[in-house]
């Protein structure tokens, strides 16, 4: 997303720098992309950036990664992340993220399930909380229509709950799902522990985890308006790729998602849902 194409040495160098300096490659690249778009649209002056920050300027990217880690010069501004950068220069709409977290690799106009998954993710635009790319793109465990919104609210809920209950709670690597199913993971957990794990009770544990995280966010001030994706995905048709010409109807999927979760129209867990999950004591936290 930085316009540096067909340059493996650049990719190796930038990934090495981010790893050595303890910075996330997704957030760093998303923040730099925000800066480049601000620059190209005339909102970020060259004298502030210290570079001609056009997309494709590999040299500037490499230098700014280190400056960001050390908070030197313009790197001190970049270190605050893409949202604060865009807000500082008066154009927060340029930031591509959810809940102020930068987007990963996926243009959700080509995988609509990732639209509702990232919109509702409890930590923002994170692909590690429910990887709907597996069924939408990879066909695992079976292929679904990546450009359809129908059923994607239910799909996102299921994958979020399974990820929370099977993978995150156990410490299993997320990407092992590419080589095995949740059922085999649960069988491994049961064989190792003997505590009575089943696919059903592990998914229910994941649902409980997800609701706890969601209630925490609600307590912190998040509302339905935060469960969304950038305007670009909602209003600007994709210029290319599998989703060329499409936009994402996030509201339709969000309504289905809330219904599947047993939440009200504003995204608050109902008393019945809290009781079902054994979380009755949290009803006053919403």
Report on the structure:
The protein is mainly α. It folds into two domains: about 90 residues, Aldehyde Ferredoxin Oxidoreductase Protein, subunit A, domain 2, CATH 1.10.569.10; about 180 residues, Orthogonal Bundle (Aldehyde Ferredoxin Oxidoreductase Protein, subunit A, domain 3). Helix content is about 50%, strand content about 0%. It contains 14 helices and two strands, in the order ααααααββαααααααα. A two-stranded antiparallel ribbon has the order 1-2. β1 and β2 form a beta hairpin. α2 packs parallel to α6 and α9 crosses α13. The longest helix is centred in the last third of the chain and has 21 residues. The protein is globular and about 60 Å long. The two termini are about 40 Å apart.
User: How confident is the prediction overall: mean pLDDT?
Assistant: 96
Number of structurally distinct domains: 2
Gyration radius from CA atoms, angstroms: 20 Å
Residue share in helix: 40-55%
In the CATH scheme, the class of the largest domain would be: Mainly Alpha
- Head-to-tail CA distance between termini: 38 Å
Order of helices and strands: HHHHHHEEHHHHHHHH
Q: Which residues form runs of ≥5 with pLDDT under 50?
A: none
State the CATH architecture of the largest domain. Orthogonal Bundle
Largest sheet: 2 strands, antiparallel
Strand content: under 5%
- Which structural category fits the helices and strands? mainly alpha
Which fold name is given in CATH as the topology of the largest domain? Aldehyde Ferredoxin Oxidoreductase Protein, subunit A, domain 3
Could you say which overall geometry the principal axes of the C-alpha atoms support?
A: globular
